[in-house]
Amino acid sequence: MPRKSKPNRECAEPSLTFAALGLSESVLRAVEAAGYREPTPIQAQAIPLILEGRDIIGIAQTGTGKTAAFTLPVVDRLIAGPRRTRVLILTPTRELCVQVEESVRNYARFAELAVAPVYGGVPLEPQQTALRAGVDVVVATPGRMIDHLERQNVVFDDLEVLVLDEADRMLDMGFAPQINRIVAQIPPYRQTLLFSATMPPEVEALARRYLRKPEVVQIGLR
Three-state SS string across the chain, please? Predict the structure, then answer.
């Protein structure tokens, strides 16, 4: 079973700041520009572990800051790196895909990073153009991501980080086969981050399959 990183805490330390988490200067500037002063509990516990390169399972309800808990350290990792697809973030819905993309762009405002949102319900060609031009981060829904992989619009040979966001919702929506097909195209030696509001047996099975010795960061009850 995964190990918990530390005893569960309902709130971050009063004096804790984003700077204390180990984030780089350009990311801290973006956090300040966004108007945030103190990390939420999920951010305070998850960000240092992600910066260390650990696989993690983050369990917290909606509205607790899960998106920033992984987008901040992901942006930090990409700064000053080569232009290639190094991060894939899978989300269950178009709406969440757009939200996560905006989060990445906000925290990368002082870094030269390219982000491509990939979701269904819109023409495929503009996404294809963006992917083939080269991006650092792909934020995608599973079904549309399969479409682009089948057309060879993107390859994940250099992928370093895979994020499964709202994993319980993705499985509830029947995306397990698509997730498996996508992960089969990704190098096995990567960092994998799984975030979920709940931890049913199906999500635990997914974590066992794709995460290596993950730390569990849990806020509140399962």
Answer: CCEECCCCCCCCCCCCCCHHHCCCHHHHHHHHHCCCCCCCHHHHHHHHHHHCCCCEEEECCCCCCHHHHHHHHHHHHHCCCCCCCCEEEECCCHHHHHHHHHHHHHHCCCCCCCEEEECCCCCCHHHHHHHHHCCCEEEECHHHHHHHHHCCCCCCCCCCEEEECCHHHHHHCCCHHHHHHHHCCCCCCCEEEEEECCCCHHHHHHHHHHCCCCEEEECCCC
Residue 151, CA distances (Å) to 108, 129, 175, 216 in order: 29, 12, 20, 36
Residues 19-53 pLDDT 10s: 999 999 999 999 999 988 899 999 999 999 999 99
The predicted model scores a pTM of: 0.91
Task: Give the pLDDT of residue 64.
Answer: 83
